Amino acid sequence: MEIIRNALVIALLMTPTVGFGQGVAKPKNAYLYIISPHDGATVSGGFWCRFGLRNMGVTHAGSNFLNSGHHHLLIDVNDAIEANERIPQDKQHIHYGGGQTEGFIQLPPGKHTLQLVLGDGGHVTFDPPLVSKKITITVRESKKQSARVVKRVPMPPAGDPETAVPKDATDGGKSEAATAGAPHDGKGE
Question: Are the C-beta atoms of residues 103 and 116 closer than 8 Å to each other?
Answer without folding.
Answer: no
